Amino acid sequence: MQKVILVSLGAVLGALARYFFSQISWLKGYNILFINLLGCFIAGFFIERIKNPDIKIALFVGFLGSYTTLSTYSLELMEIIDAKKYFKALFYFFSTSLGGFLCAYFARFLSKSL
Questions:
Q1: Is 43 in contact with 95 (CB distance < 8 Å)?
Q2: Cα–Cα distance measured from residue 44 to residue 6, given in angstroms and rounded to the nearest whole number
Q3: Could you give the residue ranges of the DSSP H alpha helices within 23-85?
Q4: What are the extents of the domains in the chain?
Q5: pLDDT tens digits for 37-53?
Q6: What are 33-42's contacts with CB under 8 Å, separation 24+?
Q7: 31 three-class SS
Q8: Residue 95 near residue 44, CB atoms below 8 Å
Q9: Among residues 59, 60, 63, which one has the least CA distance to residue 18?
Q10: What is the pTM of this model?
């Protein structure tokens, strides 16, 4: 139950941070890019530094999970590259980026057709 509370608290803070950064006027048009890049930076900076599993779950699953999923994607891609599975890394990179876009585009087309 403690882990559920930690994830929930982190998620609330991540969602609030995402909302806050999405409202900054000088970022207009680049808010989501900023959010995603900052989330990736936070993930990359803390992945090796935080040893406490409770803090890790609150930050990575809770906060970053609701703030941006690009940070999780980036960490997974780093793990694949660290394992020297370069073809898998390229496939993962292109299938996630292009595949995600194509799924969203197709879903929007489908919803307009119904």
A1: no
A2: 20
A3: 31-46, 53-56, 64-67, 70-82
A4: 2-68
A5: 999 999 999 998 999 99
A6: 35/67, 35/68, 36/68, 36/70, 36/71, 38/68, 39/64, 39/67, 39/68, 39/70, 39/71, 40/68, 40/70, 40/71, 40/74, 42/71
A7: helix
A8: no
A9: 63
A10: 0.80
